From TrEMBL:
Superkingdom as given in the UniProt entry: Bacteria
Gene3D superfamilies named in the record: P-loop containing nucleotide triphosphate hydrolases
Organism, as annotated: Tahibacter aquaticus
Protein name: AAA domain-containing protein
Record lineage: Bacteria, Pseudomonadati, Pseudomonadota, Gammaproteobacteria, Lysobacterales
Length: 676
């Protein structure tokens, strides 16, 4: 996954003819030399413009080219000024697979500059052939995602797979090319002001610098973080699904005035434990399982089915006795209901009192913690008044207005905090127990109410029998059979749904266990072993180069790379204002060239190309620049490319390059000349 420049062409059409420049590039170190204001920086910025990346320099979408390409130019030979009628930039590129394409983008033209034409071959270095042309767009939404977007095509050409990253608003977006290029393209105006780079922030990408370095270095940490985040989301979803299903089972239990036992509020990991969960129905002051209740009623229904429906005269002697018994039972149940109502009210009152006490404890805890913080910060407020000794007789005094009894002292604030926390734990436990008790009262009340209603309905049927003709079928007998059959049908339906729900809980449990196992298999450290190796190698390369370049603010061996930001640091603190201006430039050289060299030793996503516009900043010593050039030459052996643009004294530059295997492209005057 790499690319390199083969040829850059600038063209400007005027009434006086065609002007332009052609600059060839080779593998290894390329030095572009011209005096100041001769168009050197225009050439490098033309590369950025051709690739549709001007927004890495500014969010305003301004064309980063000088008036020579946009407005007018002065003929270097005659001095005459000519208006620019049309202009364009051409750039020939080659990727790591040996594929070549040529990009053309207009600057001033009837054609919208958002349009980029791509030719499938070396249209500049081999213009005799005819190459297929395809047009793409840039600077509009979708340029990095859609098939007709130039940046999507360019990413495929380089061989990258750009990751999705988090935005400040919580959404996700692509790690755009404009956030990556500052790591291997340093422009003259602002590019030298930060290490490792000045990143555009208008994309609203969280920790954009960190994400860019992670990608270029090919670190696993981002993918690992995303995987951990996704696992946490999946685990939370699993817990939520469990709670929803548990609530559904509890609602199912309420259909029979029952309760569920054996299903926890959080996912259970044992399938056997879930299988042992039961649904209990009230039986007076005790409980029996749903299966037991179903078995009992099924036997009653079977017994009644084997008998004919009796007439009123056949059961007349039994009616009065059953009516009296039901009346007594209903009265007894109502009395029990009243008692449960009272107990629930008492429990509610105790729960409210505990909640009030807990709120008071929370307030006390905050006050004591604030007092502790003030003391730890060194506050002496009140120390002149409270010295714990009488100012006259030196008798010890407790810090309280209470009577001064011997052997009694007020707890210090630290003990107060621990005591309040203990009290809070007790009252929280009281609240939890109270909630369970109230829930139990409500279930028993619901069961008793259902029981009273059923017995009252039976009582009305028995009384109806007393006024019915003697030879009529007993209404109460018929009602009893219908009630039992309906009850059995309800219980069977609940039993079936309860069994299905347990199977669904088991599926959730298995999924939850698999997620926990997967999370447990991930490394605790946010860096894989491969990541740690890359960071170690990068740090070594930076230290090595900083030493060679004459870094002197402190020992280069003290330079480290922060694991959270990937910025240079010393002893855990980011390197900042303590650096001399020239050492800041040396560190910038070292960092960006180290990223390039790292890709020779470790698998990374670095494109294998590096641009420096005016690398000699802040009057850096000549010896430092000499070492930089010597270091950059090694790119040729790895098939990489380094491009320096400079306006330093030409003889000095030629002296730096003497004996080095590199390419020097020098212009004696303006780079943009008349094309003959």
């Amino acid at each position: 996954m790499s690319f390199k420049l083969r040829h850059l062409r600038l063209r400007t059409e005027t009434l006086a003819g065609t002007y332009g420049a052609d600059i060839p590039f080779e593998t290894g170190l390329n030095v572009l030399w011209a005096d100041n204001t001769m168009g050197k920086s225009t050439c490098l910025q033309a590369v950025i413009y051709a690739l549709g990346l001007e927004r890495m320099l500014s969010s305003r979408r301004e064309i980063p080219l000088t008036y020579v390409m946009t407005s007018h130019l002065d003929d270097p030979e005659t001095g005459e000024q000519h208006n620019v009628l049309e202009s364009s930039v051409w750039l020939e590129l080659e990727n790591g697979r040996g594929e070549i394409l040529t990009v053309r983008r207009t600057v001033k033209s009837d054609i919208d500059p958002k349009l980029i034409s791509v030719f499938s071959g070396p249209a500049l270095t081999d213009p005799a052939d005819h190459f297929t042309q395809r047009d793409y767009f840039v600077l509009d939404p979708g340029a990095a995602q859609r098939e007709a977007g130039f940046h999507r095509m360019f990413v495929d050409f380089v061989g990258w797979a750009l990751p999705r990253v988090k935005r400040y608003d919580g959404g996700e977006t692509t790690l755009y090319l404009e956030t990556l290029f500052p790591l291997f393209y340093v422009e003259q105006k602002a590019g030298w002001s930060a290490v490792p780079a000045v990143f555009p922030t208008y994309f609203q990408i969280r920790e954009v610098g960190r994400r860019a370095v992670e990608f270029i270095m090919g670190l696993d940490t981002h993918e690992l973080e995303l995987k951990k985040q996704q696992l946490e989301l999946d685990i939370a979803a699993s817990k939520a699904a469990w709670v929803i299903k548990r609530d559904e089972i509890q609602a199912l239990a309420r259909l029979t005035s029952g309760r569920v036992e054996g299903i926890a509020s959080t996912p259970m990991l044992s399938v056997a434990e879930i299988e042992r969960a039961v649904l209990l129905l009230p039986d007076g002051n005790s409980w029996r399982t749903l299966a037991q209740e179903s078995h009992l009623i099924r036997n009653q229904v079977a017994d009644l089915a084997g008998e004919d429906v009796p007439t009123v005269s056949e059961i007349a002697p039994e009616l009065v006795a059953e009516i009296n018994a039901l009346t007594t039972q209903i009265a007894s149940i109502n009395a029990e209901r009243n008692n449960l109502f009272r107990l629930r009210q008492v429990e509610n009152a105790q729960r409210e009192a505990a909640a009030v006490r807990l709120a008071s404890l929370d307030d006390d805890l905050k006050k004591n913690q604030d007092a502790q913080k003030i003391q730890r910060l060194g506050s002496l407020l009140g120390s002149n008044l409270v010295l714990h000794h009488c100012p006259t007789c030196e008798q010890p005094l407790a810090d309280t207005l209470l009577p001064q009894r011997a052997g009694v002292s007020v707890m210090p604030v630290e003990d107060n905090i621990e005591y309040i926390k203990a009290q809070k734990a007790i009252f929280n436990q009281v609240l939890d127990q109270s909630a369970v008790s109230i829930q139990d009262f409500e279930k028993r009340l619901a069961a008793l109410t259902e029981d009273v209603n059923a017995r009252s309905f039976r009582l009305r049927a028995l009384r109806a029998d007393l006024t019915a003709p003697a030879n009529a079928a007993s209404i109460s007998a018929i009602e009893q059979r219908l009630r039992l059959e309906t009850r059995l049908q309800t219980l069977d339906d609940v039993q079936l749904r309860f069994g299905e729900s347990k199977l669904e809980l088991q599926a959730i449990s298995s999924r939850h266990k698999a997620l926990l196992d997967e999370r447990g298999s991930l490394p605790d450290d946010r860096f894989s072993e491969a990541d740690k190796t890359k960071l170690t190698v990068l740090t070594r390369l930076i230290r090595e180069q900083a030493t060679a370049y004459g870094f002197t603010t402190f020992s280069a061996s003290e330079i480290d790379i922060a694991e959270d930001t990937f910025r240079p640091e010393k002893q855990g603190f980011e390197i900042g204002f303590e650096l001399s201006a020239s050492d800041a430039i040396r560190l910038k050289w070292a960092y960006q060239l180290a990223l390039l060299e790292l890709s020779r030793k470790q698998p990374t996503n670095h494109p294998g190309v590096l641009f420096f516009d005016e690398p000699r900043q802040q009057e850096t010593k000549k010896a430092s620049v000499q070492h930089l050039f010597e270091r950059a030459v090694s790119a040729k052996d790895s098939g990489q490319q380094v491009i320096f643009a400079t306006s330093e004294d030409r003889e000095q530059v030629e002296g730096f390059l003497r004996g080095l295997n590199c390419s020097l492209v020098a212009f004696d005057g303006k780079i943009v000349q008349r094309i003959r």
